[in-house]
TrEMBL record:
PANTHER family: FYVE AND COILED-COIL DOMAIN-CONTAINING PROTEIN 1, PDZ DOMAIN-CONTAINING PROTEIN
Gene3D superfamilies: 2.30.42.10, Pleckstrin-homology domain (PH domain)/Phosphotyrosine-binding domain (PTB)
Domain of life: Eukaryota
Residue stretches making up the PDZ domain: 70-139
Transmembrane spans: none
Protein name: PDZ domain-containing protein
Organism: Chionoecetes opilio
């Protein structure tokens, strides 16, 4: 359409990008670049696209035949959110299902919008068969809580901060499913990660002074990490085994700074989604080897 100027009423001649000779060529060059990107998309993983551009981790599981999975579900906004997993149960094996996950399908049937109790009825109907589930994970690959589930967790009165710590601890301990950072990406600063603390509904820089003191008062054993500032975000990677500890895009980070009386410490505050719309912010505190490194 751009090159042949063949319209047939498909687009506006004067007001559209395609109808403009220069803008149309720029648009074509953009599409050409996109044609070289390998989009590994799962079409069924689209249920949160109305709320966030971030795609959650989407997993298929086939569990052994059983009548009791050891799961307790909370139903909110039409979604079946896992609120408890019994220790030693079929679902708990290898952390297949975790608190905060959403059950999207069971036995090939979408359960979105189902009422309480219908999932149990589905188990009874398929008694003796392997239990196939499709699960939207409550956390991203590096352990961060998936932004789309945060409002659901709050409505179910689940402690998001506690879940965040559990997810990140699991991400550190697991060998499978944890991204290893290549040597090319490790050109960062070696610092000590002291910990994090919630600062509430605002990510203003004024919270940093108090947050640094609060984190240091917890007397946690710091982790030696490489802090990598990339093109789209910040990552903290364990120095010992290159496992991801933190990962935040710049759109999630609302502020950064340090205390005047602790010039070798610094911190940044990030929301659980884009900082312009987030209602929950956390401060992450680090200690550098020298004051010059902080500057």
């Amino acid at each position: 359409m751009v090159r042949t100027r063949c319209n047939n009423g498909i687009y506006e001649e004067d007001d559209s990008i395609i109808g403009n000779e220069i803008l149309g060529e720029i648009f074509l060059s953009l599409l050409y670049q996109c044609s070289h990107i390998n989009f590994d998309l799962r079409l069924e993983n689209a249920s949160f696209l109305d709320e966030t551009w971030q795609l959650p981790v989407y997993q298929d599981h086939e569990l052994v035949p059983c009548m009791d999975l050891g799961l307790y579900l909370g139903h909110v906004c039409g979604r079946a959110v896992v609120v408890k997993v019994e220790e030693g149960s079929v679902a708990a094996e290898d952390n297949k299902i975790e608190v905060g996950d959403i059950i999207a399908e069971a036995f090939g049937t979408c359960i979105h919008g189902w009422r309480r109790g219908r999932v149990s009825a589905l188990l009874r109907q398929n008694r003796g068969l392997p239990v196939s589930l499709r699960v939207i994970k409550g956390h991203m690959g590096g352990g961060a809580v998936f932004p789309g589930v945060v409002p659901l967790l709050h409505r179910l009165h689940l402690d998001v901060d506690r879940l965040q710590d559990q997810f990140r601890e699991t991400a550190l301990n697991e060998t499978q499913g944890t991204a290893l950072i290549s040597n090319a990406l490790l050109e960062g600063h070696v610092v000590q990660y002291c910990g994090s603390i919630s600062v509430g509904v605002s990510g203003d820089v004024t919270h940093i002074e108090h947050a640094v003191s609060a984190v240091l008062s917890q007397n946690r054993e710091p982790l030696t990490v490489t802090l990598v500032t990339g093109e789209i975000g910040v990552q903290a990677v364990l120095k010992t085994n290159r496992k991801m500890v933190l990962s935040h895009s710049y759109t999630e980070i609302s502020s950064c700074g340090r205390r005047n009386d602790l010039p070798d410490h610094f911190a940044y505050i990030a929301g659980d989604t884009s900082c312009t719309i987030s209602l929950h912010f956390t401060c992450f505190v680090f200690k550098a080897g020298t004051v010059e490194q902080v500057c």
